[in-house]
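Data availability (excerpt). The following record was deposited with the supplementary files.
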Amino acid sequence: MQSNVKILKTEILSDNWYILKKITYEYLKGDGKKQVQTREAYDRGNGATILLYNKEQKTIILTRQFRLPTFINGNETGMLIEACAGLLDKDNAIDCIRRETEEETGYKVTNITKVLEAYMSPGSVTEMLYFFIAEYTNEMKITAGGGLEHEGENIEVLELFFDDALRMMETGEIKDGKTIILLQYLRLKNLL
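Predicted structure:
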C-alpha cells in the first residue's frame, strides 16, 4: 500500500530527555487534494507493561509512584497507581518486561503472555506499548522491588484484591490507561 504522506522537513526541538520533533509533511487527502501540515511528535521509544495476577488469592500486583505530568495536570499528590512498565531500551518487549517486573515489583515471573500492543497517545507520542500478563505466586518474590535508585525510582509495590482494583478504577483511584486496559482484559477473559 502506497503512503499518502511525504515528510518535507524535520526539526529537533528538544533532545533533553527524549526527542521532540517538529515535522512538516504533505498529506494526500481522500479527495485527491494535497495538504501541508506541521505537527510535533515526542519520541521516547517503545515500552512494555504487565499485570501480575494470582488466581488462588484473586489478587494482582500494581505499583504506586510519583508522575510529574499528572501532578501538573491536576493530580494533587502526583502519585499514580499503575501496572509495572518500562521502556524497551534496545531490548525486545519480553526481555524488557521481565527486567522491569523484577526491578519494580521484586517478582521473577516465568510464564508471560502477550495480550496486545497499542499506541497510547498517537496524536503526539510515537510510543508503541506491548501489553503482557503473568501469573505470580508468593514464592516468586525474590526482592522487595521498588525500582532502581540510580534511575530515581521510588516505587511502592501494591498487592490488591482484583475486585478492590476494579472498584478503584470505577472510583477514579486508578486513572492510568495501560492499567485500566489490563484490568479490563483480566475481567473480559474471566482470569480472576
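Summary of structural features: The first strand starts at residue 5 and ends at 14.
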